Structures are given as structure tokens and as C-alpha cells.
# Entry
Amino acid sequence: MVDEACCADCHLLNEAGVEDQRVLIAAVLHDTIDDTDTTELELVRHFGKDVTDFVFEVTDDKTLPKAERKRLQIEHAAHISRRAKLVKLADKICNLRDITASPPADWSIQRKQEYFDWAKSVVDELRGVHPGLEHLFDKTYEARP
# Structure
């Protein structure tokens, strides 16, 4: 899901007070590998190895079926770096807010509910990284269709 109406870096900086520039840059770039032809080398050259590593920690393997990618997000969430967890948490907040404010036209109520519940399963594995962001997620989750 491409975050057009909501931006992960905005939540990190404005709502959670995260000022780590590498985290904020990774948040802006978090879907770059998923959604563009940008290579790892290009990211490293322009943004450095740290930022690139954080982006790759939150990037899905698009060669896998969607259900497997979603399962792996839950499984891997607890094991990614603290900085990548911040990016992942902010992204899930954005996605839920986008679905609440402007859901895809072809999504049924059931699909929206399933997405909310899946996102919560991912976030539950991230808990303990940033109580403020976790609270924002929980408040956003309350809008579950």
C-alpha cells in the first residue's frame, strides 16, 4: 500500500518526537524497494548503508505469495532493529489511517477488518519500542470498521 495521504516520517517526527535522521529518511523511503526499480546500491550511494539497512528490514520479498509475505511480517517484526521497528510501526499507523479516511473502493468491510487485525498482529510483535507510537496505533485501531 502506497502511503499518499499519510506519511510515516510525519508520525515519527511530529507525533512521536523521533528526531533520528536515519530513521526519518528510512521512513520516507520504506516502500522504495517494493514500489520502484531502485536498487540497493542506489540507496546506499544516496542515503548510506544504515538507512538502506533499515529500509531492507521493512521490505517484503515480492517473489513470495502475498499471504506468505504477510505471515513473515508478523514473524519477523520482533527481530528487526529498533530503528526499523519505529519505521514499521509508523507505517502501520499510516496504513490504518488511510484505510479509515480513504479506503480502496473495492475493499469490503471484511477486507478492511482483516487488514486492521493483521496490522495489529504485526504491531503486537513491535511492542516495547516506543510507547507513544504504540498508543497512536491503538487509538487508530479503535476506528476498525
